[in-house]
Amino acid sequence: MNELPWIEIISALAVLAGGGGIAGLLVARRRRRAEDQEQAERTAEREAVAEPAVTAEPEATAAPVEAPDLMVEPGPLLEPIEKPAPTAGRLVRLRERLARSGSPLGARLLSVLSRDTLTEDDWDEIEEELLLADVGAGPTTELLDALRTKVRVLGVREPAAVRNLLRSELVALLQPELDRTLHTEPTAGEADAHLPAVILVVGVNGTGKTTTVGKLARVLVADGRSVVLGAADTFRAAAADQLTTWGNRVGVPTVRSDREGADPASVAFEAVARGRDEKIDVVLVDTAGRLQNKAGLMDELGKIVRVASKVAAPSEVLLVLDATTGQNGLSQARVFAEVAGVTGIVLTKLDGTAKGGIVVQVQRELGVPVKLVGLGEGPDDLAPFDVGDFVDGILG
Ligand SMILES: Nc1nc2c(ncn2[C@@H]2O[C@H](COP(=O)(O)OP(=O)(O)OP(=O)(O)O)[C@@H](O)[C@H]2O)c(=O)[nH]1
């Protein structure tokens, strides 16, 4: 009798006996051999796509992709899979969330505009409110001019008319014409190969990237999409655990490395390759928080984009900005846009601030639309951005 059936019998015994003793060892050795072979195949594939040696780019970014000791957390085996809430109407919750964090910008503007007669001091107050809410100097002047003209020249005074006027001016300021579609469709590569949509999530520390990836996975699952998560935040060990937990809750596997500091580009590559091999619709890649002024980290981000693109170029690079940090978000956005080609903004923690004007500035400066907003720490507190609903939310 050849070796294999014996191993099968011993394996079965091992499973029955809880995997202990010689049988357990054989099973472990056999599993290790299979893993080694799989690892060798992946390494060969990685080497085949390694960057050419001659390149004009900085040394750090041209390094070959190193093997990251990858693991795939398969999704839940024991826990029941959660059913995420539908996404429609989520932004409507904004109003109640904002009410908790103080009077929203729109409501404050409305209260000044509704005064019987508007003095220069009142207009100064409106200007101050807009600037304090991070709307930015240019857009503030534009809005003030439009309001002054319509209130004074056209004599708009009746409360409902003032509200309508302010609403339509705020809507115009938020560029409703921008395309806010999240591109999550797989595409066909060479020889009709399946290429997953790849969404890369970037930003500075603590803005809510991992949480956003987790929430977004739920949104996609709710929409019937297959998803793989890539834990390319290899600096913070807890980040991969955090992401795996999010994935497990909705039955989505996470590609991760169990080695802290492993090459994040490699993890991203593996996640995208897995998405391709298993014909997954969307691969969501979480990256480590980085300061926009740390050249090395930003180079590394560029490398993640390039290496993942060897399999499939990102269909979206989402920059996560914390709405409570305001103005600083703008300089972050500029640098990330340069390095990673940002295609959309996710504005998190909107529930924790009465500001929100940064939406206006970021969109103006970069021509990149806000596509999603974070409305709380709950698993389904992520909403597609809709200009009309947003303005209604801040008008209170
Ligand atoms: N209130 C509120 N909290 C949020 C929102 N999004 C994320 N958070 C919280 O922000 C904190 C940081 O979130 P993470 O997802 O860990 O942030 P990160 O950007 O991945 O962090 P690093 O990996 O350290 O860069 C967590 O406590 C989240 O619950 C939101 O929309 N509203």
Automatic annotation (TrEMBL):
Coarse class of the primary localization is membrane
Listed transmembrane segments: 6-28
By its UniProt entry, which InterPro entries does this protein fall under? AAA+_ATPase, P-loop_NTPase, Signal_recog_particl_SRP54_hlx, SR_rcpt_FtsY, SRP/SRP_N, SRP54_GTPase_dom, SRP54_N_sf
Provide the coiled-coil residue spans.
Answer: none
Pfam families to which the protein is assigned, alphabetical: SRP54 (PF00448), SRP54_N (PF02881)
Start and end residues of each stretch annotated as Disordered:
37-67
**An MF annotation (GO) of this entry:** GTP binding
Name its GO BP terms in alphabetical order.
SRP-dependent cotranslational protein targeting to membrane
- What are the EC numbers? 3.6.5.4
Name the chemical reaction catalysed here.
GTP + H2O = GDP + phosphate + H(+)
Membrane topology per record = Peripheral membrane protein
Q: Where does GTP bind?
A: 203-210, 286-290, 348-351
What keywords tag this UniProt record?
Cell membrane, Cytoplasm, GTP-binding, Hydrolase, Membrane, Nucleotide-binding, Receptor, Transmembrane, Transmembrane helix
Provide the top EC class. Answer: hydrolase
Q: Which SUPFAM superfamilies match?
A: Domain of the SRP/SRP receptor G-proteins, P-loop containing nucleoside triphosphate hydrolases
Superkingdom is: Bacteria
User: From start to end residue, where is composition biased (Low complexity)?
Assistant: 50-67
HAMAP family reported in the protein's UniProt record = FtsY (MF_00920)
Assembly with partners or alone: Part of the signal recognition particle protein translocation system, which is composed of SRP and FtsY.
What's the stated role of this polypeptide? Answer: Involved in targeting and insertion of nascent membrane proteins into the cytoplasmic membrane. Acts as a receptor for the complex formed by the signal recognition particle (SRP) and the ribosome-nascent chain (RNC).
Which NCBIfam families does UniProt cross-reference here? ftsY
* Family under the similarity heading: Belongs to the GTP-binding SRP family. FtsY subfamily.
Protein name per the record: Signal recognition particle receptor FtsY
At the highest ranks, the source species' classification is: Bacteria, Bacillati, Actinomycetota, Actinomycetes, Micrococcales
